[in-house]
Amino acid sequence: MIHVIAIITAKPGQREAVLREFRANMPAVLAEDGCIEYGPAVDAEGLGNAQFGADSFVVVEKWASPEALAAHAAAPHMKAYGERTREMVAARAIHVLKPAA
What we know:
Blueprint: E1 2-10, H1 15-30, E2 35-41, E3 56-63, H2 66-74, H3 76-85, E4 89-97
Helix pairs in contact: 1-3
């Protein structure tokens, strides 16, 4: 299994617009072979000792294999999502992890 933590930072005031596009794309991603989990999360105010901030959200993903993740990255709906959100996103940090032995 592969875990992905993607930190998406929208341009100021654009987070909700990016999240709308993200949510519209979710059914296609969840239908992909090897997708176990895929969803956005935002800061839980008042909890924890660090926050991502008002312009950011985190995508929590689980994939059955590196091959499934690679197919996801190359999927036409992901390319279209990237094109629709390109002007709204300031930065992306994609962390790909494996379970610790």
